[in-house]
Write a structure and sequence with these properties.
This protein is an alpha+beta fold and 80 residues long. The chain is built from four helices and three strands; from the N terminus they run βααββαα. It has a domain of 43 residues: YefM-like domain (YefM-like fold, 3-Layer(aba) Sandwich), CATH 3.40.1620. The chain is elongated and about 60 Å long.
Protein backbone atom coordinates (compact mmCIF):
# COMPACT_ATOMS: atom_id res chain seq x y z
CA UNK A 1 0.00 0.00 0.00
CA UNK A 2 1.25 3.49 -0.81
CA UNK A 3 -0.12 6.77 0.57
CA UNK A 4 0.84 10.43 0.27
CA UNK A 5 2.18 12.35 3.29
CA UNK A 6 -1.07 14.30 3.76
CA UNK A 7 -3.09 11.08 3.78
CA UNK A 8 -0.65 9.46 6.22
CA UNK A 9 -1.03 12.43 8.59
CA UNK A 10 -4.81 12.36 8.36
CA UNK A 11 -5.21 8.59 8.69
CA UNK A 12 -2.19 7.67 10.84
CA UNK A 13 -4.18 5.63 13.40
CA UNK A 14 -6.02 3.79 10.63
CA UNK A 15 -2.74 2.92 8.91
CA UNK A 16 -1.30 1.58 12.16
CA UNK A 17 -4.39 -0.61 12.64
CA UNK A 18 -3.95 -2.02 9.14
CA UNK A 19 -0.41 -3.05 10.05
CA UNK A 20 -1.36 -4.42 13.48
CA UNK A 21 -4.16 -6.56 12.08
CA UNK A 22 -1.99 -7.88 9.26
CA UNK A 23 -4.23 -6.44 6.54
CA UNK A 24 -1.14 -4.66 5.20
CA UNK A 25 2.42 -5.96 5.46
CA UNK A 26 4.00 -2.55 4.79
CA UNK A 27 2.83 0.97 4.02
CA UNK A 28 4.96 3.27 1.90
CA UNK A 29 4.57 7.00 2.44
CA UNK A 30 5.34 9.15 -0.59
CA UNK A 31 5.88 12.83 -1.25
CA UNK A 32 5.07 14.03 -4.76
CA UNK A 33 4.90 10.40 -5.88
CA UNK A 34 8.40 9.58 -4.59
CA UNK A 35 8.57 6.95 -1.79
CA UNK A 36 10.26 8.37 1.31
CA UNK A 37 9.24 6.17 4.26
CA UNK A 38 8.12 2.57 4.77
CA UNK A 39 6.05 1.67 7.82
CA UNK A 40 6.07 -1.95 9.01
CA UNK A 41 4.65 -3.72 12.03
CA UNK A 42 7.18 -4.76 14.67
CA UNK A 43 5.89 -7.96 16.26
CA UNK A 44 6.23 -8.54 20.00
CA UNK A 45 9.09 -10.79 21.01
CA UNK A 46 8.33 -12.63 24.24
CA UNK A 47 10.85 -11.81 26.96
CA UNK A 48 11.55 -15.51 27.43
CA UNK A 49 12.95 -15.61 23.88
CA UNK A 50 15.44 -12.81 24.60
CA UNK A 51 16.77 -13.65 28.06
CA UNK A 52 19.53 -16.20 27.90
CA UNK A 53 19.65 -16.23 24.11
CA UNK A 54 23.48 -16.34 24.16
CA UNK A 55 23.69 -19.05 26.81
CA UNK A 56 26.36 -21.57 25.87
CA UNK A 57 27.52 -19.52 22.84
CA UNK A 58 30.72 -18.20 24.46
CA UNK A 59 32.90 -18.76 27.50
CA UNK A 60 34.49 -15.98 29.52
CA UNK A 61 38.19 -16.57 30.22
CA UNK A 62 39.10 -17.66 33.76
CA UNK A 63 40.96 -14.36 34.34
CA UNK A 64 38.05 -12.23 33.13
CA UNK A 65 37.93 -10.22 36.37
CA UNK A 66 41.71 -9.98 36.83
CA UNK A 67 41.97 -6.26 35.97
CA UNK A 68 38.83 -4.97 37.68
CA UNK A 69 40.71 -2.71 40.11
CA UNK A 70 42.81 -1.16 37.33
CA UNK A 71 39.75 -0.61 35.15
CA UNK A 72 37.86 0.94 38.07
CA UNK A 73 40.75 3.33 38.75
CA UNK A 74 40.86 4.41 35.10
CA UNK A 75 37.10 5.02 34.96
CA UNK A 76 37.07 6.79 38.33
CA UNK A 77 39.86 9.14 37.20
CA UNK A 78 42.52 7.74 39.52
CA UNK A 79 46.04 6.55 38.82
CA UNK A 80 46.64 3.32 37.02
Amino acid sequence: MQVQVAEAKRDFSKLIRLLETGKEEAITVSRNGKPIVRMVYIPDVPVSNRIGIAEGKFKAPDDFDANNEEIYAMLAGGDQ
